[in-house]
Amino acid sequence: MKLGPGLLVAAAFIGPGTITTASVAGANFGFALLWALVFSVLATILLQSLAARLGVVTGLDLAQALRAHIETPVFRWLAAFLVISAIGIGSAAYEAGNLSGASLGLQGLFPSASAQLWTPLIAIISAALLYSGKYKLIEGALIFLVLLMSLVFLATLVIASPDLSAMFAGFKPSFPEGSLTTVLALIGTTIVPYNLFLHSGVVARASQDEQDKQQAIRSSNWDTGLSIGLGGLITLAIVSTASVAFFGQGNSQLSAANLASQLTPLLGDSAHYFFALGLFAAGLTSAITAPLAGAYAVCGMLGLQGDTNSPRFKQVALVILVFGAVVASLGLDPVAVIIFAQATNALLLPIICIYLLWLMNQNKVMGRFKNSLLINVLAMPLLILIITLSGYKLLTLI
User: Fold this and answer.
1) How many CA atoms lie within 13 A of 90 on its CB side?
2) Is 110 left (phi over 0), alpha (psi -120 to 50) or beta?
3) How far apart are CA 370 and CA 266, in angstroms?
4) Phi/psi of residue 162, nearest 5 degrees
């Protein structure tokens, strides 16, 4: 079993959005929404395993597969428009939140330094990694940062010492008053559409030399389950820590700027630096993976070479990065931007899921590796629930 592609997905969804959303969930609703996190993690494992299997079997990422197998020109162009709009432009929007979050982390670590320096510095580091085109270097950096995040946030959970009986009670589904937007945000911050393009692209690239497809799929499933499970454990640690620190204490108005400092009474004087380190690592991992995912989606739908060494691939990734850096420098409230982006992400998710499930059930695409009846039985209720939640949210915004 080779760990790697799944950890990149974990690196992508454990970003400032996850930290902020999970902290708000814990502060406002205690442990009551842990069930939504568990649902999101299981759903993500299912969807990402489908995307990875598509990459293994076809040697194409999700965008390339859509372009190749949607035969009607009108529908092909419609798919291209939706994917580029939702994933390419969406990745650029997320990039602003990623850079803002990483910048806030560095501000917490080095409060005496000028805050205006951090966003350009992080953007330059991310751009250098992306422009290098060296996948192994990018993968190694992201895996290191994921492990760093794991140590930081799991340590905060141990120090916070939550009530385990209260925590386990949160796995029973419930909708406390005013919690629907937070439930959608938790789903959106975990089940991220652009990760389906990222995962399928990375696996397709790695599977070109694989001879035994069945073994490659088995290895990929283990990688996906363990990696995303670790990401879910990190998120659970953040929700639980925020619940112990803030729930029921009249202090639910969190901001990314003061989140670390507000943990000081619980975790001690070092909490500010400890949590800021995790926020920086989360922001940097997502700042690297968002342009990667956007580039896979845009290049695949436009028929451009989808390889990290391709000049066009690098150009698309850098455009997304530069756009995010510009927006992040405008001084917008990062928490408001991140929460809004996560809720919007949940609205875009059904479109991508429908496309993926359609491909996975096409005999001419997947052959003997197409979805089994069991997988479809598991996937359809998930899709219906995602559509229902997204539709309800859309109605509330009209």
Assistant:
1) 27
2) beta
3) 50
4) -70, 160
Best-predicted range by mean pLDDT among 48-57, 186-195, 238-247, 278-287? 48-57
Determine how many CB atoms are found less than 10 A away from the CB of residue 327.
18
Amino acid, res. 274: F
According to the per-residue pLDDT averaged within each range, which of 7-21, 24-38, 244-258 is highest? 24-38
Query: What's the CA gap between 293 and 11, in Å, rounded?
Result: 12
115: which DSSP letter?
G
CA distance 328 to 290: 14
Q: DSSP states of 80-97 as a string? A: HHHHIIIIIIHHHHHHHH
pLDDT tens, residue by residue, 271-288: 677 778 888 888 888 888
- Separation of alpha carbons 235 and 104, rounded Å: 19
How far does Cα 277 stand from its chain's mean position? 19
**255 CB burial (10 A radius; 0-12, 13-18, 19+):** middle
Orientation angle between helical segments 334-360 and 73-83, nearest 10 degrees? 150
**Which of 5, 38, 10, 92 lies closest to 281 in space, CA to CA?**
10
Task: Tell me the CA distances in angstroms from 133 to 126, 291, 309, 310, 325, one per residue in order.
Answer: 12, 13, 5, 8, 20
Rounded to whole angstroms, how far apart are CA atoms 87 and 197?
9
